[in-house]
Design goal:
Blueprint: H1 2-15, H2 34-37, E1 40-50, E2 55-67, E3 73-81, E4 86-97, E5 100-104, E6 108-117, E7 120-131, E8 134-148, E9 151-160, E10 163-174
Antiparallel strand pairs: 1-2, 1-10, 2-3, 3-4, 4-5, 5-6, 6-7, 7-8, 8-9, 9-10
């Protein structure tokens, strides 16, 4: 009996990890068009929290974004953390139609899936990080909401084996835009 109750509680907690469908935001404005927002120079400013919600690090980032003639986007990111660590990531975003994109980066395992609807974006991927001298794979669920012409808010949930191990909150701001 105790074993069955344990299994039921595990299944219930894992099903609680399921997320909202991005389609529920399809009527929200301003519309989040990736090719328009992620174009040119942007900055990002955020915090990393542990599983208890405590801020453990903060960072600033620069993003240089562009799109080629085939509609493939490239986001070149440089993160500088408060402890002096610098990280680089280059995303390649390939349109798949109907507001869907595939995304790859050098520290992403496989291909991430991205969907946009209305003012919202959801990106799911597996990120490989260095943690205490070894490689660790984290499932990342990114949500972004376009707030106005030049601002996007981002919330990322980091999971390992289905359990929430941390989160990231940040603001992305377009620079030099009218």
């Amino acid at each position: 009996m105790i074993k069955r109750a344990f299994i039921v509680s595990i299944v219930a907690s894992l099903s609680a990890c399921s997320s909202t469908d991005v389609g529920q935001y399809r009527d929200n404005a301003p519309v989040f068009t990736l090719e328009e927002f992620f174009d040119g120079h942007l900055t990002a400013h955020g915090v990393l929290k542990n599983r208890g919600g405590e801020v453990t690090r903060h960072f600033n980032a620069s993003i240089d974004a562009s799109w080629d003639d085939e509609g493939v986007g490239r986001l070149v990111e440089r993160f500088e953390f408060d402890d002096g660590e610098i990280q680089h990531r280059t995303w390649t975003l390939t349109p798949e139609g109907d507001g869907r994109y595939s995304g790859t980066a050098e520290d992403v395992i496989g291909t991430g899936t991205l969907q946009v609807a209305g003012n919202a974006l959801r990106l799911d991927y597996v990120l490989e990080i260095d943690y205490r001298g070894r490689k660790l794979s984290l499932n990342v669920e990114d949500w972004m909401w376009r707030i106005d012409e030049n601002t996007v808010l981002n919330e990322s949930t980091l999971r390992k084996w289905g359990f929430r191990v941390g989160s990231i909150q940040l603001a992305i701001v377009r620079q030099g835009q009218p």
